[in-house]
Structure formats: C-alpha cells, structure tokens
Amino acid sequence: MTAPLKHAAQLSAERAQTTSFYEASARTRVELLLDSGSFVEFVGPEKREVSPHLKIFDLPEQFDDGIVVGRGRLDGSPVFVAAQEGRFMGGAFGEVHGAKLTGLLRAAREIESIPVLILFDTGGVRLQEANAGELAIAEIMRAVMEARTAGVKVIGLIGGRSGCYGGGGLIAGCCSALAVSEPGRIAVSGPEVIETNRGVEEFDSRDRALVWRTMGGKHRRLLGAADVFTDDTVQGFRDAALELLGLVGAFGLDKLQAEQVRLTDRLRSFGTCRDAIDIWAAEGISHAETVPDLPADQFISLANKIGRTSRDAR
Amino acid sequence: MEDLSFQHRARERAGGTRQTAIIGVVASGNLEVLVERILSDAECRLEIKTAAVGFGEVWNAVIVDFVERYSPGGLKFSINDGGARPDTVSLRLAQAVRLIEEDDQ
What we know:
Helix content of chain A is 46%, strand content 12%. Chain A is α/β, with parallel strands linked by helices.
C-alpha cells in the first residue's frame, strides 16, 4: 500500500512544479498546493449551497458558489485553506461565497493554532449581490483580524487571472503576509474603474504595461505590499506559503501602529512619483525601466537586495 | 435559464468506488459537472441548468452519444452550464466519468 501512495505524492509534486498557478482552477490549486491527498472540503459542491440571488437575475449558479474551503496539510502540518475560482463571476464575493470564508476564519480563530491560506482570485464584490457582498467583505475583514488577534497566521496567495481587487484587496491588506506572482495584481479600484471615474488621462486601462507596473506582483513586492514574490507555479506558491508561515510573528496593537508608520513613510517617500518606474528609481534600482522584463529569478534577487518589509509591521 | 432533464438506461455500472466528483467551472462557454453515484446500476440521469435557452435537441444528441460510449450506470450528473459548445460538454462529461471511476484514496 505504501509504494503506490508514495508514487502519488511524487506525481503530485512533479505536477505542482509544472502547473501554472494562473492557469489552474481553484480545485487544482488546492490539490497541488497541499500535501498529496490531504485536502478535506467543507460544505462541498454536493451540498449545493448556491447563491440565493443569481436566479433572480437569470444567471447560472455554481455548486460551490465560486470558493473551495477546507482543511489539509502543508509539509505535514495542518492548515485551513480557501481558494476562489476566478473564472466564475470573476471570483467575486457573494453572500454564500463570503460566508464560507468567514466561517473558515472563525473556525481558525476558535482553534487558534492552525494557520489559514487564502488563495485570492477576485474582482471584488459580486454586483448582483451588492449589499450581501459588501457585508461579506466587512465580516471577513473582521474575522481575519479576530483570527490574527487569537494568534492565527493568515497568509494570502495572489496569482490568479482575476487578480485581487475591490474588497479582496481590502481583505488582503488585513492578512499577516502576502505572496504574489507576476500575473497577480493587488489593488482596490481596478483599471477600468479608475478610468471610468477619473478619465483616460489619469489611467488608461487598455495600457496593459501600465496596469501591470502599477498593480502587478513585481511592483507590489518592491513597494512592500507583498512579502514574497514567486514564479507562476503552484510549487512556487507552496514554497512561498511555507516561507511566510516561518516568518510571521505575533500580532498586536504595536504591529498595527508600526504598519501605520510604514505606510506614512512610504507615502512621504514616493507620494510625488508619477509612475511606478519613478518609485523603483527612488528605491535605488538602476535601470528601473527594465524591471518589468526581468525573469522571476533575477527579479527575486533584485527584490531581496532592496530589502523586505520589516516584520515589525503588518 | 432553462432546466433540462434526461433519463437513460445504461448497459453496465460505472467502475470505481468514488461517490462524488466535480469537474469544470461555470463561465462563458464552459460548464461544471457534478457526478454522484446514487442511482441503481442500470440507471443514469442528467439534470441541466443552462444559460443558453432552446438547445434541448443538441443536449439530447450529445447525451445519447455519451451514454452509449461510457455506459455511466448508477450515476447522476448535475450540470450548471454557462453556454458551452457541444464538444466542451462531451469533454466535461467524459472527464466526470473518468474522475469518479478513480479508486477512492
């Protein structure tokens, strides 16, 4: 019995190394991120806890409402995990979708010792469930902070096709630490939202290079918003999660105050910059304009030279 | 949205021991298939909720072909469809059977 199991674990590890996190579904991400065969889903699709709102809009439902939650093991240790499916309704938060994440975080808060991994892939609140979705965001933010206060590490992993926008960006900002890949984007207002409200002169949403150097993973790592940058493989995110679980320390009011100071300093240092490239140059990166073209390994060594967000903050 | 339901006799029981499996995502041109081993060995049922209204005959043709090829006896398929083309539907149905025919770990 041992031999075929070992074989399955090896096979899974090989798949994790060759599978793009960006391209994978939420279920594949969870399966390959955790130890082989260890995932147990809570409120799985067979329970059919679908959105109560989409039917009203004559829109199709998904049996898991676009989020997979459960428990498993990471390098032998227990973890809770939630993964959003960015292709269903843009990974957006609805009432049930949000409640599943809130419940997971509250369970972690009660148990205190098991960390939570959140695989964000979201455009924000599901517009068809506006108020319920907004409430879900507020509940999740509170649940993240309560879990952290109880000593739980909450790690965000961001590298999906929908990025991490809107309320998702707010929740990510509440996490203990974040890992991001190049295609992952972190922001609150998305490119189209900014252009619609402030005009194309402010932000041209069709300028993909501008979008990525303003919201993309590399910039978020260099700004200190994300703690670790990884190549776009599930194995890369697994390694990043393990690294972050080792780095995150205790949480309390002093941490929040240090984070406030860090953000104030950041605004003072870079507040007048017109473009991300200006910020990178101000951080002391020579040939800052070449950063978007750097392959992942070269970028990681550059980012490590610039330094890492102080673990006193966040 | 349109609800469709199909009932077929299968030649034989689907292999494997897993009780449920799920494949696919509800997105434009895609669908999810939840398959459950809850029927008697000779039965097969498919329940579909689709965003594309008026394609019952095409669904019927795809499903008759699927049941003939894979003999998914004992399986109930619940489908949420975002307007997938027939070839995508065939692929997802085949993937669903393949998944549930794996032995439980």
